[in-house]
Amino acid sequence: MHALILTIHIIVSLMLIGLVLIQHGKGADAGAAFGGGGGGGASGSLFGSRGSASFLSRSSAILAAIFFITSLTLAYFSVETPNKAKSVTETVPNEQVQQETPADLPEIP
After folding, report:
1. pTM assigned to the model
2. If we measure between CA atoms, which residue out of 56, 16, 55 comes closest to residue 8?
3. What sign does the CA torsion over 103, 104, 106, 109 have?
């Protein structure tokens, strides 16, 4: 389950990055309104016409919601349980090492 959610999370994050990069910025129309040598007025208003949300902005909002849900789910699954081992060395069975006592040495005259 964890691997499936992680895979979805990675795919959604890459798609979200791609959608954000191909969208047209809101401030791009403001530069055209003030004019770059031609007197301006290229857009209908100062920040451009703002009708209904475009397909790209809606899909990026949906992908962002999925990204947050998968992030919270992965955080929930990463919480440690009290019985769970914290490291690899704790999972190895503890072998009892029997210490050998040194043999009695002969007396030196």
Report:
1. 0.54
2. 16
3. positive
Residue 46 is given by DSSP the state T
Q: Does residue 83 register a pLDDT over 50?
A: yes
Q: Quick one: average pLDDT of 72-85? A: 79
How many domains is the chain built from?
1
Alpha-helical segments (H) within the chain: 2-22, 28-34, 55-77, 88-91
7 to each of 3, 36, 72, 74, 85, how far by Cα in Å? 6, 46, 14, 11, 25
pLDDT at 62 over 80: yes
Can you spell out the DSSP letters for 8-21? HHHHHHHHHHHHHH
- Residue at 94 is within a domain: no
Residue found under tokens 């209908």:
44
Residue 86 lies in a domain: no
